[in-house]
Write a structure and sequence with these properties.
With 45 residues, the protein is an alpha+beta fold. It has one domain. A two-stranded antiparallel sheet has the order 1-2. It comes from Marininema halotolerans.
């Protein structure tokens, strides 16, 4: 499975069950996708 991220986009490439499993994991997290992406991109800089 491959994930591609930048400041405003998140792309997951993989088998259907892998993508669904990742999305289920992310749904349990209290942050929204927008907040998560912005924090993740700021950490990389």
């Amino acid at each position: 499975m491959k994930t591609i991220m930048d400041e405003k986009h998140f792309c997951v490439v993989g088998k259907g069950w892998q993508v669904r499993a990742l999305l289920r994991q992310m749904a349990k997290h209290p942050l929204t996708l927008e907040e998560w992406l912005s924090r993740r991109c700021h950490q990389r800089r």
